[in-house]
TrEMBL record:
Gene3D superfamilies: Hypothetical protein af1432. One of its GO terms (molecular function) is hydrolase activity. It comes from the Bacteria. Keywords: Hydrolase. It comes from Blautia massiliensis (ex Durand et al. 2017). This is Hydrolase. The keyword Hydrolase applies.
Length: 201
């Protein structure tokens, strides 16, 4: 199947997202998705998994109240395939967005389940990284991440219910999801930083 090229996907993301925090989140989820594709035996599709990660929050900056509802329109207009659109929408499965609608498109493919599980968790892990003297995931221990995860007051916006549901959908225990996602982020951090620096230059 022909897919949107990575460069085109990145340009499309930047058409609707200007906030560096959002660009960094998209690059992070892209890198984590690529890491998981390789780890789970989908190495040939790593770029494809990454593109889905890159585009998953495309509508969030401009249409936060219609998150996951506006995305199909933006993506279709740009010629993005229905398979990617399905994956993007399914990362909101069961979540009620600001306008009051609940997303009913469920993740089906393993790629979609990984996106659902890892997206919310990358937010929590990055928040934990920023609290560290190093401001990095690279020296973060699983034990400290687990502690942050259990602390209700920490990064309260990152829904533990969504993360747990993500692990359940994959048939993984929470520890496996935390371990793998932390490793994915630690291994990708330098590359993401390089891309962010290139954007700012
Ligand atoms: Fe996201």
């Amino acid at each position: 199947m022909e897919h949107i090229a990575r460069d085109e996907a990145f340009a499309l993301l930047k058409k609707y997202n200007k906030d560096p925090f959002h660009i960094q989140h998209a690059l992070t989820v892209e890198a984590v998705m690529k890491w998981y594709a390789k780890e789970l035996g989908y190495g040939d599709d790593a770029e494809y998994w990454g593109i889905v990660g890159l585009l998953h929050d495309i509508d969030f900056e401009l249409y936060p109240e219609e998150h996951c509802l506006k995305a199909p329109e933006l993506l279709r207009e740009a010629g993005v395939g229905e398979d990617i659109i399905h994956a993007v929408v399914s990362h909101g499965y069961g979540i009620t967005v600001g306008c009051g609608a609940t997303i009913e498109t469920a993740p089906e493919h393993e790629m979609e389940k990984v996106l659902f599980a890892a997206d919310e968790l990358t937010g929590l892990i990055w928040a934990a990284a920023l609290m560290r003297p190093s401001k990095s995931t690279k020296d973060m221990e699983l034990k400290s991440l687990k502690k942050k995860y259990k602390s209700k007051g920490f990064a309260a916006g990152c829904s533990r219910e969504v993360i747990q549901r993500g692990a359940d959908q994959l048939g993984w225990d929470l520890a496996k999801l935390l371990t793998m996602t932390l490793q994915a982020m630690a291994e990708s951090e330098d590359e993401i930083q390089k891309e962010m620096d290139a954007e700012e230059a």
